[in-house]
Specification:
about 20% strand, about 200 residues, single chain, five-stranded antiparallel beta sheet, two-stranded antiparallel sheet, alpha+beta
Amino acid sequence: KRSRAALTLVASGDRRPVPLPQTHLQRWMDLWPDGIVVTDTDYRIIYVNRAFEKMSGYSLEEWIGKKPGFHASGKTSPETYRSMWESIAAEGSWTGQVSNRHRSGREWVSLLSITRIVDEEGRLAGYLGACRDITKTVWAGKKDIRKAFQEAFTQEALAFALAEAGQLHEGGSRQHLERIRDFTRLLVLGAADRGY
């Protein structure tokens, strides 16, 4: 049996709570195609839906009491996390991209939105996170970047070979071509360091 999160919906523009039957709300959360995570004020997980279980590879029972960082891949920058918590503190929400580690060990990337949950008196009650697995989209973009770098490297090599063959390397032309080659290598190394 799945643990139930007690939530009440509030109609837009009307601050009177409209209780939705728990069975409806629970079913909606369980069947929602995006991952849903609810934590308490100490960031300890009290609920995850089935989509999040599938994305992460861990069951609800395994998530209960853990912090969301439990499955972090270590590839999301500290600046991203700093920005996340600054935004949540100032605005009550944040949306961005984070990298996670599936139970199997593979990396997956999520588009994550976190919202601060407050009670009727405005006190912090916890946090709600909704995430979507965007791994395929991100990796497709990285492949495009890799392809562009490979093409640039190939074009640079051809230009260098043609310049040498055409004896255009007299004087400063050869130095200029050497700088282009060095700069291209730096770009490729920098992209590799960032996982591209």
